[in-house]
Amino acid sequence: xxxxxxxxxxxVDPADQWVLNPQTGEYELRxxxxxxxxxxxxxxxxxxxxxxxxxxxxxxxxxxxKVPPPxxxxxxxxxxxxxRRGRRPVKKASKAKKALLWTGGTMAFVMVAAAGAGYLYLRxxxxxxxxxxxxxxxxxxxxxxxxxxxxxxxxxxxxxxGNGGYGDKGSVGHADTTILLHVSKDRSNATALSIxxxxxxxxxxxxxxxEDGTKTTVPGLRGVRFNRSxxxxxxxxxxxxxxxxxxxxxxxxxxxxxxxxAVKTLTSAVDGVKVCVTxxxxxxxxxxxxxxxxxxxxGEQALAFLRTRHSFGNQGDLDRIKVQQQFLGSLMRKMxxxxxxxxxxxxxxxxxxxxxxxxxxxxxxxxxxLKDMALELKKVPTKNITxxxxxxxxxxxxxVRATVIFDESAAPQVFQxxxxxxxxxEVKAQKKKEKAEVAARLKGTKADASQxxxxxxxxxxxxxxxxxxxxxxxxxxxxxxxxxAGNSQTTQAKTTLEYGPDQAxxxxxxxxxxxxxxxxxxPGKSVTNSQGLPxxxxxxxxxxxxxxxxxxxxxAKTPNVPxxxxxxxxxxx
Length: 573
What we know:
Blueprint: H1 3-9, E1 18-21, E2 26-29, H2 95-102, H3 119-128, E3 130-132, E4 148-155, E5 175-183, E6 190-195, E7 200-203, E8 206-209, E9 215-218, E10 221-225, H4 237-248, E11 254-258, H5 260-269, E12 273-277, E13 281-282, E14 289-290, E15 293-297, H6 300-307, H7 317-336, H8 338-341, H9 344-357, E16 359-361, H10 367-378, E17 385-389, E18 392-394, E19 404-406, H11 411-419, H12 428-432, H13 436-439, E20 453-458, H14 465-476, E21 481-487, E22 496-499, H15 504-514, E23 521-523, E24 527-528, E25 534-540, E26 563-565
Parallel strand pairs: 3-16, 4-11, 6-17, 20-21, 20-25, 22-23
Antiparallel strand pairs: 1-2, 4-5, 5-6, 7-10, 8-9, 11-16, 12-15, 13-14, 17-26, 18-19, 22-25, 24-25
Helix pairs in contact: 5-6, 5-9
């Protein structure tokens, strides 16, 4: 009988089966009534699991799958063996302790935090998680005090009961749904960047460990669909991670991969997720039937909602991505709701469902690390979790639209913002960084771009940056009165713009174009340009990453790309 079943059968609150061990300061899952012995008896019960190898190896009939350790048996502490007689009343934990114990994360795949610190239960959850060694494609470990990037991958492999009718019948498990989740260093915001499966990319050579244990490098491909970065020719999630880094410049630290079952089990664990449609849906392909307005979906119906294409938008993958983002936002709200966080039943179900549904990189393959990650993600307010999609445009080489390519006018800036840990939403912490008088430099009238006079020096950017920025300003922004003044005598970390008292309106225009913050604007004096006219001085610092890429999106408009936040209810249609 599982923990929940035991509790219901004997009228015991499952939360009361977690007991404080005074010798370790940790809560432990107690499956009998020996709690009163804790203070007197040595506690060498079950060692804390370490590393990815803590799970049990799979039996021959289930290759690659870890299974939980047996309950009881050799090596199990006597007072934790199930079925012991002489049960005594369990002392109930205080409400405060319960609240601490059951506080969980905000996303389905990190609800393992709900398991608390019970060694036996953690070890059981450990056995649920499958891991893949991705080598140097990811980070060696999880750092709680740094920004991090997780690649969340949903495959179209037909694994699990009842999934035979989904996806590609012959698929080896392509990257059907991919989201790069960036979590900021200060945990004030996060960005979930969807990557279309039909995006044309270059897939690099990929070192892998095959199912038989042999190591091989799978040759790369040029100009192919992104979804081929997984599954085909033995490519593992590390190959997908390398592909993202190769094409976006964003370093991926970890991955989490799930199949069709994940959606079904996770939504059932929270008793369904609310979705909204602008019109009634009766989709013959996905078998989704919903009335207009809000509905609650779980299990098979939730999966059908996510796989529906022909009833939403232009029936393409990009519109399906929007639906997926709306669904994930709703799921996050459900995870963070009091209805979930105060329910031990739901949290235990989520812990089981999340760990059973996941395959992760070995660096985060132990439940303790997943718990730490959950607690870090929980710090991010849902209103500051932004969903957006990689900027793309139709592939010009195709007569019939089937694939997309990067939109070079917007994609580089989106990637740079993630690399620079810049939020896509207004974050109060960002505004506090600038004093009122500094922020005021951005306020006021702006001169026309044709009236802006500026000379550009390279003070720490890549070689040739001053000339490239000059070309961008003149050809794309209409700043014709600009010139390249060569290299600065010194290097500096930040880009700055110095201007005279009568040039404030010109400075505000250039700041708007370049995304300069108020602190980057330096009131001072003008200099004389080659035509003998007073001009501003722009020094490109080490933070300058490329012509046309805005430097500080907290003070400038973010890229003109569709986006939404996790706290907003949206309807698919």
